[in-house]
Each structure stands twice: as C-alpha cells, then as structure tokens.
Design goal:
- It holds the Pfam family DUF7342.
- This is Winged helix-turn-helix domain-containing protein.
- It comes from Haloplanus litoreus.
- The chain is mainly α and 179 residues long.
- It folds into two domains: 74 residues, Arc Repressor Mutant, subunit A (Orthogonal Bundle); 89 residues.
- 70% of the residues lie in helices and 8% in strands.
- The N and C termini lie far apart (52 Å).
C-alpha cells in the first residue's frame, strides 16, 4: 500500500534506485504515458509530472500529444486541466491484443469457462446479475459476498472483451480476404 506521498512502502534507497532505473531506461514520453495509463482519477499535469519524473512543461507537452492520439483524455475541473487514461483506447488495445495473441479456439474455450463461472455465481447466490446480488446484500454481508460481486463483474467484463476479440479477429480476417 502506498503512503500519502504516493510512494510505496519499503526501503527508501531501493525506491530511489528503482526510480532512477526507470528514468534511465525510458524516455520522458514513455514515463508520462505509463503514468497516464495507470491514472483512473483525473490528475493535473503537475501531479503527472511528479510521478513521471519530468518537468511540468515536459508533462504538458506529452499529455497534449497523448490526448491527440487518444491515449489520454483531458477535462476541465475547477479551472485546471486534468488528465486521465482513455478507457476506450485501453479497451480497444486489449481486444486487439487478445485477438492477435490467442486463437479463436482459445478465446472460445475461455468464453465457455467464463460463462460457467457466471452460471455458478447465479446459482450460488440466487441472483441474476452482480448488481442484483449487490442490492440484496445487507450491511452485515460477508466479505466473501462482496468479493463475489466484484469477481462476477470482472468475469462479465472479461467475457464481453473476449467476445469482442473474436468479432474483431473475424472482421479483420474478412477485411483482409476482400482486399
């Protein structure tokens, strides 16, 4: 777990060494992009610059480029521009990666496993969806029940991503066949 400074707990010397290794083995753009890809709540260019080990002007320059190519999204909050990862771009990259790295057969087998897992959730909790389960849980619900809600949601998301990867691969193959 991190500390208030955003630094992970651990040996300060090891942390400094890891930061220096990261800085020497990557470009400023790569570091800004890596920080943005981990950013789920909007951050200012200054906050991203600090995490990416770059100056604020350098961060702004690279963030502008990342917004232009769709890796990042920019919003105005309280008079400040804040940046966050573009979830659609990450989703597309994940779908494309699955379609490229796995065979249709592997994806179908994975989809079948996920459907069985979802069916087990439905049967075990007598619920039609993770949202249905969540709304039925009381304040005294076990940690396991809440973990099941989260795992069920993740499984459903992964199921849809795997199905999209099959469709993406098929569309890509059909496009190549018509050229």
């Amino acid at each position: 777990m991190g500390t208030d400074s955003g630094q992970p707990n651990g040996d300060p010397g090891a942390i400094t060494e890891a930061r220096e290794d990261w800085k020497s083995s990557t470009t400023a753009l790569e570091r800004v992009q890596q920080v943005v890809e981990q950013t789920t709540t909007p951050k200012t260019a200054g906050e991203i610059a600090e995490e990416a080990l770059v100056s604020e002007p350098t961060a702004r320059k690279h963030l502008k480029s990342l917004v232009e190519v769709g890796t990042a999204a920019a919003t105005e909050e309280g008079g400040a521009t804040k940046y966050v990862r573009n979830e659609d771009t990450l989703l597309y990259q994940r779908i494309r990666e699955l379609a490229t790295e796995h065979s249709r057969k592997e994806l179908i087998e994975s989809i079948q496993r996920m459907k069985r897992r979802i069916k087990k959730f439905e049967d075990d909790y007598d619920a039609a969806s993770p949202e249905d389960l969540a709304t039925s849980l009381g304040s005294d619900a076990s940690e396991g029940a809440w973990e099941a809600v989260s795992e069920w949601q993740t499984t459903e998301r992964n199921l849809h991503i795997a199905q999209a990867a099959i469709n993406y691969g098929r569309a890509r193959d059909l496009g190549a066949a018509t050229q």
